[in-house]
Design a protein that fits this description.
Blueprint: E1 4-5, E2 16-17, H1 18-30, H2 38-45, H3 52-70
Antiparallel strand pairs: 1-2
Length: 91
């Protein structure tokens, strides 16, 4: 598995590490859509390593991906070690 995430981007400046992804997700939880100067705060939370434009672009990609997942647009793969949900037993 790759160590960084691109969410469909090919530009090297758009490649994010897992640590950056997690930090970004935490920043979005701390600074929600009602927060004044949200993107400045998120950029500060990220340590200034990403521009506000990069953060906004990343957010739009995340929103698109979540919408696609929620609309069943992304197939879910069952792994051999886990039975499909119809076979799971509640205990």
């Amino acid at each position: 598995m790759a160590s960084n995430s691109t969410w469909g981007s090919s530009s090297s400046s758009d490649q994010w590490t897992r640590q950056e992804d997690k930090m970004f997700e935490r920043a979005l939880a701390v600074y929600d859509t009602d927060t004044p100067d949200r993107w400045h705060n998120v950029a500060r939370y990220m340590g200034g390593t990403r521009s506000i434009e990069e953060l906004r672009r990343r957010y739009q990609l995340l929103v698109r991906d979540v919408a696609q997942i929620e609309s069943d647009g992304v197939p879910f793969h069952w792994y051999a070690a886990a039975p499909p949900p119809s076979r799971l037993q509640r205990g």
